[in-house]
Amino acid sequence: MERRKKGFTFAILGILLFLISLMLLLQIPDFYLGSLVIMFIAVVLIGLGGAIAKGYDIKLETMAEECYFCNGSGKIEGARGSEVCPRCGGTGKALPEDSA
After folding, report:
1. What are residue 21's phi and psi, to 5 degrees?
2. Stated pTM of the model
3. pLDDT for 11-40, tens place per residue?
């Protein structure tokens, strides 16, 4: 729950920063370039906060599990004997999309 709360905080902070930069700083000619940089940072904060709140960043932490196709050996029995596992490429570890 703490991660979700932190994600929403980042997203809200990004939205506020974007609106302040758009409505106030962009109108001042001396702060035009700075306003654009702040808007870029705000958009990154919104995206990062949304990803943390939705839980998408957890998928970045891959767990080292065995490949389900070769049971972690890296080799399978093929037509010509022992072959390299096509799923894991011979490593024996599960791919990130298999872990989630």
Report:
1. -65, -40
2. 0.57
3. 999 999 999 999 999 899 999 999 999 999
